[in-house]
Amino acid sequence: MKIPFINHNHSDESIHISHDHIPDHIAIIMDGNGRWAQKRGMPRVVGHKEGISTVVKIVNAAVKCKIKVLTLYTFSTENWKRPKPEVDTILKLPKQFLQIYLPELMANNVRIKTIGDTSHLPPHTREAVQYAVERTRDNNGLQLNFALNYGGRQEILNAMKEVFADITDAKLSIDDVDEDAFSSYLYTAGLPDPDLLIRTGGEKRLSNYLPWQLAYTEFWFTDVLWPDFSEKEFIQALEEYRLRKRRYGGL
Ligand code: FPP
After folding, report:
1. What parts of the chain have a pLDDT lower than 50?
2. How far is the CA of 73 from the centre of ligand 1 (A)?
């Protein structure tokens, strides 16, 4: 059995993790940026910028652990309700991140994709992400999904409308609409459902994140705020996942 290890940036400590029962797909709700900044007397947007460093660390950890898919909740359909300067800052983060880290992602064989309605994002966000999607399309390592302008209920409604349209156009028979067929109309078509959901920041809710796909997912919550989240907690989540017995409604 291969034992990958991860070196912490801030210490000499190494973390070991068994390589068996590693989840194929991990979804993360990166919560707590605003509180992290406010605790330090700084504007909330400083927390979002700091959150980029954690994204880099966790993507690298996921690569080392040979995770196949990592899906990060970056901007929800509900996040538009925040003050405009905060929305503007969050929507600049993908470009800022990719300008610096795209070469490293290429070197790590990471393929970037998005889930969500990217058509309503500002052009600078859409173009930066689209460029990264094109550049990394032939990579076959970790698939890194950014959920951008993503809302789970909206995703299901859109899928339902497309199913109806295909039934109306006789491209699909109603008898063929089973779970697999319906899943193929979602943004995550072709991907395995997440095995593990991680939510940082202490809240214990889904916030409209992947409601269909998380039906049988294992949940792991931590009070640690996203900018403080590190490889150590990530590995802890993987270790706890390893000990869970998944029964999918059986015994
Ligand atoms: C939730 O924290 C976080 C967000 C809405 C934004 C998440 C974005 C990042 C972590 C950076 C993304 C990075 C890349 C590379 C695109 P919150 O603001 O709700 O925190 P709070 O609960 O403390 O208010």
Report:
1. 1-13
2. 8
